[in-house]
Amino acid sequence: MTGGFAYFIVAWVFILVGLMGIGGFFMFRKFLKRLPKEDGKSTLDWEEYYVNKTKHMWGKSELSLLEELVSPVPELFRDVARQKIAGKIGEIALQKKRKKITQDILIEGYIIATPKRDHKFLRKKLMEKEIDMEPYADLFDQ
C-alpha cells in the first residue's frame, strides 16, 4: 500500500510541476509582449491601437467572417487570437489608407497574423468558405 501511495505522490508532483511550467511559459510570453519596444509601446499596445483606430471600419459581414476564421482556435485562446489578428488587419488597412475593412484586407491580415504552423487550418477554413486562395499564395510563403 505504501509503495503505491509513493508512486501516486511522485506522479502528482510531476503533473503539478508540468502544469506550472506550462502556465509559466504562457505568462512569460504575455510578459514579453507587454515590454515596451524602441518606440515606447509594446506589441499589445500596438494591437490595441490598431483595433481602436479601425473599429468604425468593420462591417457586420467582415466581423462574422473573422469570427468564423477564428473558430478553430481553442476557446481559451480565441480572444487573444482575435485581438492579434484584428490588430494586424487594422494595421494593414491603415497602411493601405482604406476607409473600410474588406474581405481582401481581412484575409491578408489573417494570413500574416497566423503562425505558419496553423496555415493548414486556415487553408481548410478558406476552402470551406469557398474563398479563392490564389491571390494570397505569396503570403502563405512568407
TrEMBL record:
Keywords: Membrane, Transmembrane, Transmembrane helix. It comes from the Bacteria. The chain crosses the membrane at residues 6-28. Pfam families: DUF2621 (PF11084). This is DUF2621 domain-containing protein. It comes from Sediminibacillus albus.
